[in-house]
Amino acid sequence: MQLTEMRESRAFVQEMKFLVSPEQADGIREWARVNLSPDPHAGGAAGDEYRVTSLYLDTEDLAVFERRGSYGRSKYRVRRYGESNRIFLERKLKTRNRVGKLRSIVSADEVAMLERLESPKKWAGHWFHQRVQVRGLAPVCQISYSRMARMGMSESGPIRLTVDQDLRATVVNRYAFAPVDASVVLSPDQRILELKYKAEIPGLFKELMQKFDLRPQPSSKYRLAVAALELKLCPTS
After folding, report:
1. In this predicted structure, what is the pLDDT of residue 129?
2. Residue 235 domain flag
3. What is the pLDDT of residues 123-180, one digit of tens each?
């Protein structure tokens, strides 16, 4: 059992999302591979691809989906990259167009500890366990997708570009990952482009947006999944 407290906080960054066609996505990937470096943790032929699988948590009455109060500003999820044994317990906090993360890494066999009423205080996932219990959160669906990730530097700091495709979702009610091939396909005719940066839009991203005539659009994989899976609101007691 991993008992050492490991918690990583990621500073708030600006985030823009775009829905693009498969043809646009192909062009954007080519552009990104010329102008940006691959994510050092990725693989594939170009060294910049990996699969992301996440369990998304919500209340019985879907307060996160409904964006009620503080539930509308934060998302809690359990995330795995590829088939790794390293699992990320994450809280994503959003204020306007800025997002920040707080996360810890646990091993795959430790994820089941989230099902318990109590967890060891020195466990890396203890803070996550406490918060989801206080907020009445539990897994409601799994979302998986293939991601291309590229990185670089601008005048104001690091920048990151990702293109997500092959989005799939399935209903879950436990802290356990389900087979991806049994999932419902989400938005097969669209890809999701995300741009992250520190402050002002970097010149490189302005060039990209102009070249491909991109317009920011709100996009939530979780909201797509809830609609596709027809998750229903449970009445509160």
Report:
1. 97
2. no
3. 999 999 999 999 999 999 999 999 999 999 998 899 999 999 999 999 999 999 999 8
pLDDT digits (tens, 9 = 90+) for 71-84: 998 999 999 999 99
Q: What angle do CA 198, 203, 205 make, to 5 degrees?
A: 75
DSSP H or E run through 81: strand 74-81
- Tell me the per-residue pLDDT of 188-228, one tens digit each, with 9 for 90 and over: 999 999 999 988 899 999 999 999 999 999 889 999 999 99
pLDDT number for residue 156: 86
In angstroms, the CA 23 to CA 119 distance is 48
For residue 110, is it left (φ>0), alpha (ψ between -120 and 50) or beta? alpha
Residue 134's CATH number: 3.20.100.30
d(CA 60, CA 83): 29
Identify whether 1 is part of a domain. no
3 lies in a domain?
A: no
Q: CA-to-CA distance for 178 and 186, rounded, in angstroms?
A: 16
* Rg, C-alpha atoms of the chain: 18
Q: Please state, in angstroms and rounded to a whole number, the distance separating the CA atoms of residues 234 and 237.
A: 9
Contacts of 104 (CB under 8 A, 6+ apart): 5, 6, 7, 8, 88, 89, 124, 125, 127, 128
* Apex 169 CA angle, 164 and 174, nearest 5: 125
Pairing of strands 157-171, 86-95: unpaired
